[in-house]
Amino acid sequence: MVKLKLGYPEDPDYQERLEEFEARIARGEKIEPGDWMPAEYRRQLIRMISQHAHSEWVGMLPEGAWITRAPSLRRKLILLAKVQDEAGHGQYLYHAAETLGITREEMVEALLSGKAKYSNIFNYPTLTWADVGIIGWLVDGMAIKNQTMLAQCSYGPYSRAMVRICAEETFHHKQGKEAVLLYARGSKKQRQMVQDALNRWWWPTLMMAGPHDTDSPHTPLLLRWGIKTKTNDQVRQEFLNEHVPELLEAGLTIPDPDLRYDEKTGNWIHGPIPWDDFWKVIHGEGPMNRHRLMARRRAHEEERWVREALEAYGKRRLAQAAD
Amino acid sequence: MLEAYLKDALVARITAWADDELILAQRLSEWVGHAPILEEDIAIANLAQDELGHTKVWLGLRQELDGADPDRLVYFRDPLEFQNAVLVELPKGDWAFTMVRQYLFDAYENLWLKEATQSAYAPLAEAASRLLKEERFHLKHSSLWVERLGQGTEESHRRAQEALETLFPYVRQLFQPLPGDEALVEAGVVPDLRALEAPYLEEVTAHLVRSGLRPPEGGYVPKSRQEHTEYLWSLLAEMQSVARWDPEAQAW
Amino acid sequence: MWGTEWPRFEVIKQDTKHSPPQMVGSVHAADLEHALLVARHVFVRRPAAYALFVAPAEAFFHVSQEGLKDLKPSRKEGGAEEPYWVFAKRSHRRSMVYGDLVGRFLAQGPEDAIAQALLQAQGVAFWAVPERLVAGTEPTEEVVESWFAPAKEKTYRLQSYYGLITAKGVENA
Questions:
Q1: What predicted TM-score, i.e. pTM, was given to this entire model?
Q2: Where are the domains of chain B?
Q3: Is A114 helix (H, G, I), strand (E, B) or coil?
């Protein structure tokens, strides 16, 4: 097992080691478990990685609800594989956090007790089949921008998990785009359904990138330590510049009357984001917060006996092996 | 090439296999996002995809025979037209019910698919050997679970035994011939399922007993694949709901 | 070690017959046999794999480049030896794997094994695990075919399956 070497500001050599540490990051080196790191670096990483892992795990629920209703064999296979990947991505991320000396059990407990956060976006309901397409194209589109950035992260295990996730996630984006574009030129009901989904998911998607840089207290430190390499607003801008032209070309209406193209910078500029909603949802008052946690707790509690059964079996095997 | 008189019989036989896989995949899908632990969530999503993939293989084979569109068959047939066995349509129950059912079904598939790789109808032989690869791994997974639940705790043993008591009588339905099977068996196109029943019962009984479980005697055995339970209607209503919601949709 | 999540096992995946086994992540499972099965479900959703190995996470000795100077590879005359597998992360380059197998070393302990591996490979992080604690898939055709080959047919999991998608339509890949 790895022994962590954590530095605290009160340590006599803290400044000196911090400078070495920051110089390593500036050179593009990866920090490995066992390398000296500020305790605050570890704390921020655990916070981010576990939140990210929880998001993948909880994120299975809104889309997972449609697996049994997917309207073709092909779409059903695709959705199964996608929701499965989300479990896989949660799994890789929990592992990355585990390298920092926290157990998955502790992280799961934090989620189930309501202490830990996960991405707000999963606190909205999926009302129709078109939501699955919009989530794939837009929500995953935003997630990919973030993940591509995090693949550059200075912490080796987080970066490795993100590289693996990015390699798999591209298909999530493509299948969503394929479905949305198909429905956008499909039957009347399909067109209405997909426009309605866009209307509901647009603002929550833009909020996924996080608060504006001016309201994001962690960002400067995260950038300095190479945990993040772009700010929230930069990630949001990249998302807009890629997706807005494609949505418009598909004949869909983006529910932002102030949206405009800025010739000078080449950027798509969005109107005011309804942040009040964001803060409400983040503080537990979103439409599905309770339901998401209830589903996770139910699985955890109702299937506790399964985990206990395998534990008993595993322990017996260990004891037999020791004899 | 297949003789014309065998075509209808083979279509019926393939449809029964496809429906078994489809309905089982639907039940497995219900677990996705709700399994006892993350790793098993990933595993059960694999099982669901594999079984659904097998549906596609069988319906693809049927399409070659009679041109029927696989998605039309899945989404627009009514409950009474489905040919699946009762075993696979029963509600998912708890993890013990799901794993015991999976084991009973995997053991059956391994057995008959192995025979079917010898089919005189080459496309069927090919499909069977493709599916068999995957089913071998499934059987490893589900037999491992049966053993661990049977020998885990008192509670897991009780749940696995209860599941077995409900499920076991239904496995016999899997070996019942369809009206056209006799001709197919005679022509060497499909294996004689009736002949596989005894080796099957012997094999699964041995593993169940090793796992500390007791296969029950007796129980109700459906008499044909026309028999279903009241659970099938709701399962299909959910599965077909989006596809049937918009009759004008050309594609999904 | 148990808790509600079962113990953790490191997973080692070998992509092809001639590529090195690589540490790819871990799984939580009840025992070695179970760990190997779920490792297949988790890490071989897509091609390709030739073999998988698992070993209890706590059996791994880990040291990063910074810690190498504190490595104490003691060897006693006539001391008991056993084979260790040593893995190394060789550079800071972008990667999805934790470490590649450097080799198998007869050593008196994990630090001794890493010291021997250092004669062959440099790196930014090293892991050593006693071979007796490693369980793996059989390198038979049947296992490769039933455990790993089916992933090749799940083409819908690959982005290349979707081709070029534009508002005008979808061009097949």
A1: 0.97
A2: 4-245
A3: coil
Query: What is the CATH superfamily name and number for domain B4-245?
Result: Ferritin, core subunit, four-helix bundle (1.20.1260.10)
- In this structure, is residue A322 part of a structural domain? no
Question: What CATH number does residue A102 fall under?
Answer: 1.20.1260.10
Residues sharing a CB contact under 8 Å with residue B148, sequence separation 6 or more, in sequence order:
A309, A310, A313, B156, C30, C34
The whole-number pLDDT of residue C171 equals 59
Round to whole Å and give the CA distance between C91 and A31: 11
d(CA B132, CA C81): 44
- For residue A268, pLDDT over 90 is answered with yes
- Testing the interface with B: which of A50, A68, A180, A292 to mutate, by most B Cβ within 10 A? A68
**Which residues in chain A touch residue B151, judged by CB atoms under 8 angstroms apart?**
313, 316
Distances (CA, A) of A253 to A195, A196, A198, A236, C46: 7, 10, 8, 19, 37
Neighbours of chain C (3+ CB pairs under 8 A): A, B
Residue A244, domain member (yes or no)? yes
Whether C62 sits inside 8 A of A34 (CB atoms) is yes
Burial class (CB in 10 A: 0-12, 13-18, 19+), A10: exposed
Give me the amino acid identity at A80. L
- The parent domain of residue A135 ranges over 5-287
Q: Could you tell me which residues are beta bridge partners of residue C100?
A: C22, C88
Q: What count of other Cβ atoms lies within 10 Å of the Cβ of residue C60?
A: 21
Under an 8 A CB cutoff, do C167 and A310 touch?
no
CA distance B176 to A156: 57
Contact list, C153 vs chain B (CB under 8 Å): 53, 130
Tell me, yes or no, whether A33 lies in a domain: yes
Is A266:A241 a contact under the CB 8 Å cutoff? Answer: yes
Rounded to whole angstroms, the Cα distance separating A129 from A142 reads 20
Do A181 and C167 lie within an 8 Å CB cutoff?
yes
pLDDT in tens, C101-142: 999 999 999 999 999 999 999 999 999 999 999 999 999 999
How many contacts, defined by CB atoms under 8 Å, are there between A and B?
134
CB contact under 8 A, C34 and B144: yes
Q: H or E element: which one contains B12?
A: helix B4-29
CA distance A161 to chain C (A): 6
**Interface predicted TM-score (ipTM):** 0.98
Average pLDDT rounded to a whole number, residues A56-80: 98
Task: Report chain A residues whose CB lies below 8 A from the CB of B238.
Answer: 68-69
